[in-house]
Amino acid sequence: MKPRLVPLFLSLGWNFIPYVITMAAGTHHFFWDADRFTPLCLLVLLLLGILSRKLYSVSSLGLLAVNFMYVHIKYHWGMDLAESRFEAAMAGPTSETFEYAKIYFGSPELAVLLHSVAALFLIYRVFRSPSFPPAWRLWSFAMMIPLAVVLFLARESMARFPPMSVVSDMLEAEAHLGQIAARESFIHNTQSEARSCSEGYEKIVIVIGESAVRDRMSLYGYPEKTTPFLDSLNPWHFNGIAAANQTRYAVPQLLTRATVRNFNAFFHSQSLVSELKECGYETYWISNQGGLGVNETYITSIASEADHRSFLQSLDYVKTEYDGKLIDTLAKMGTARGRKQAFFIHLRGSHFDYRERYPVESAMKPGGSISSEYDNSIFYTDRVLSGIFHQFESDGLLFAYASDHGEVVSEQFYGHGFVPAFREEYRIPFVVWTAKKERIDTVRSILGEGILNSESFNPLMEYLVGLDNRPDLSSSTLVLDVSPGNIVDYEKLANAIRVSPATR
């Protein structure tokens, strides 16, 4: 073997290591998981290495990045619906990315990083080795022509298998986010028309929670007093289930006509924000979540419809503010009597890392465990809800609170966005307070003790404010698991943990 081939073959062989890692972890069956395109990719790299050391080096660096993403997603989540994982990463704020890395950076990632260091050394050796003779490079170029034809013809099949599946999933995620521009165009070209909200509320306050599971709320029967304010307020509280277990799909279904069966309705429908503007309300969007650009995500697209917008994380800080700062922001914006105002307030809530969601002095009990830190986050959210509520006079007020999705909470594993999903990811608080009882009583008589799917939130609000005279409620148990392409039945999902009576 020619000496110059040694570093090239060593480098090529090293590219198999990430797949060996996943196989050893029990998450990947090497030859039986349809990896038949991996040898083709390695052959392409071999030919590139003979043709041009620079092209080989650049391609190998790209493959290192793909390998890292593949091992991480495969090990923690599985490659099913991986495009949704990439979409979350692309749309998420930096602060959330850092918190995610703290929790999910472990031994698989460390192993791949060590692998990458060795790979970089081998790539350097290839880069510094002598060029191959012109005849070899000509032969390599000639071989790549039929190989390129084969790969082009097999491109759809290749896109299903790693490492190409990682690239195709990333491109698909980018295409999904690109649909936001289409919605922006729709909103811009939609003519506003005057409408009547017959119930005549002066103030409407809608608080959107984050990762709050009703199992851990004393309002819903949890034995510890995690929601003293809501308990004392005694609002109407429904057995809510989230329409999705990911924020970017859950919030659009809360505030637009998007549903589990027809999420695409989001891209050609106004939100409740615009509908209340047409009723003469001055609208406000106040958020403790990232908002670098008003149309970068599904949620900031909705926020862009408001007259006034405030993102506490508008610079995408690495560390988020506590939700309590939203109360100060609300006070500065003004809640003057005699003005019709509608406030949409998006909390950071109980999104992991739970211990980062509340100041220590506001904890209800010592931290140190996942369970106690999560309960403290729920307790602090209740305190924030109290602060928001008391910014307003109760007369002429409609106050609603719902979480985007729930959360699995245990010492062994926690979070949301699992495939297959767990019931805890969907059991959410769905709370309404108003001094006007007639329409709420109608809703209660229809629902009884049944489930209320959060895809009902928008039509329910339309009914309560008097935009619609018929409550269009959904008790469907169909929900989205991670992606709009994956509809599942909540009733058929497993419970991850038993914690309280609130497990319907």
Strand order of the largest sheet: 4-3-5-1-6-7-2-8
CATH architecture of the largest domain: 3-Layer(aba) Sandwich
Strand content: 5-15%
Largest sheet: 8 strands, mixed
- Helix/strand-derived category reads alpha/beta
Oligomer: single chain
Instruction: Determine the number of helices (DSSP H or I, runs of at least 4 residues).
Output: 18
Please identify which CATH superfamily of the largest domain we are dealing with: Alkaline Phosphatase, subunit A
Quote the CATH topology of the largest domain.
Alkaline Phosphatase, subunit A
Instruction: List segments where confidence is low: pLDDT < 50 over at least 5 consecutive residues.
Output: 23-34, 499-504
Mean pLDDT: 84
Return the domain count.
2
Total beta strand runs: 10
- Give the SSE order as H and E letters: HHHHHHHHHHEHEHHEHEHEHEEHEHEE
CATH class of the largest domain: Alpha Beta
Helix content: 40-55%
Shape: elongated
State the distance separating the first and last CA atoms: 68 Å
